[in-house]
Amino acid sequence: MEHFKYKNNSLYCENVSVAAIAREFGTPCYIYSYHAFVTQLQNIKKAFAPVDPLVCFALKTNDNSAVIKTMVDQGAGCDIVSGGELYKALKVNADPKKIVFASVGKTDTEIRDALKAGILLFNVESLPELSRINEIAGETKTRAGAALRINPDVKAPTHDRITTGTLDKKFGLDLSTAELVLLNRQKYSWLDISGIHMHIGSQITTVEPYVAAMKKVLAFLHKLGGENIPLKYFDLGGGFGIPYDHSPVTPIGDFAKELIPLLKETRLRIIMEPGRYITGNSGILVMETLYIKDNGVKKFIIVDAGMNDLPRPSLYDAYHEIVPVKKTSAPEDVFDVVGPICESGDFFAKKRTMPSMKRGDLLAIKSAGAYCYAMSSNYNVRGRGAEVMVKGNDYHLIRERETIKDLLRGEQMPDFLKS
Ligand code: LLP
User: Fold this and answer.
1) Residues lining ligand 1, CB < 6 A?
2) Is 342 labeled as catalytic in the residue annotation?
């Protein structure tokens, strides 16, 4: 996280003091570094330059329009999974011909909207979905580009809830079904089935699972080659892991070195869908210490952010580094860092050795740019915090803190309860 550094013992994002942003916009508050997003995108493009991939940013990691626009302005395409993401991508002028659409449950409306937009590829995950897209394309007389998301049945060693490339999971088509589809592709007369897509999981820190999956893909393509099936695209998906703690993560250049020869062997135009690699270490969540509690068995630092703001630890037991915004010489102790929500799962760290905090001290949760705000909720009627983007010496509010009015919007009282 080189765009988040201490200067004179105070944490900075690029050239702006984190404490100053927290003072202005309050806490909890997400702070992102513009240059971190751009650098990470460039790193992946550079690493894979020999195959000149179309890099489609996975919006699901961080869908703030300013972040999407940052990626689009840098030439990235978009990997979307819903009509909402399609809408946001188009709103910042993403090129539809650089949009790929995965999701096991695309609705008719989503399919219609994506067809109307003229996206590059529907990444199709089941036979009934393939038929439905074909039907809707026929009804609207629009040809649709499609790729088959194959499930290579390879286990990526990551958290069970974010591994996707094995057949006990809901994702993709098994290889024999995919082959049958391609052999009978004339059945889907409104579809140009021109690609193979895979995504084997997220936060993958070694290259082996990709290599294992690629070998299966290459054998599959080889078999298809004998059948004269014309394909244009191979989409590798996303999944590249980032450092959250101090355990080793394969650098992107090493992933690329191993994968480039295999990608070249496909002889197809390469698409990639990185998300976390671009956004994960480009953001932090800043929160304030409310109370210190010692119940005789454990010590707790109670902060003003909760699992509704950043649910990864409670969902996946995920580790996030937590640092004081102002470095302190206070003695270290062992703490659970917890939020105010009425659940024992509302924690950010357990048994963490860290400096003692006092009321009002600010803390930053690191690696909070991916799947954090994006997965936040209003649980316990808590408004989501603000989001701020820093670029050099400047900072910009990119999403206001939610107010109680925002939370009540849409609620209606039935007449019989009105008094
Ligand atoms: N492409 C597809 C089809 C995906 O399903 C995903 C992530 C990506 C690309 C981007 O993967 P990435 O490069 O970010 O690993 N909420 C979980 C992660 C869920 C991943 C969902 N799919 C977490 O916080 O760890």
Assistant:
1) 58, 60-61, 79, 102, 162, 199, 202-203, 237-240, 273-277, 312, 316, 371, 375
2) yes
